Amino acid sequence: MPEFLGPVKGFGVTFRQMFRKVDTVQYPEEKKATAPRFHGRHQLNRWPDGLEKCIGCELCAWACPADAIYVEGADNALGERYSPGERYGAVYQINYLRCILCGLCVEACPTRALTMTNDYEIADDNRESLIWTKEQLLAPLEPGMEAPPHPMRLGSSERDYYLLGSAGVASREAGVAEDTPEGTLSEPSKDEMAAASKEEQPVASDADTSEGWAGYPGHRPPDAPADWKPDPAAGIVDARPGEGTPDEPEPGDDRPYGSGEKP
Question: Global pTM?
Answer without folding.
Answer: 0.58
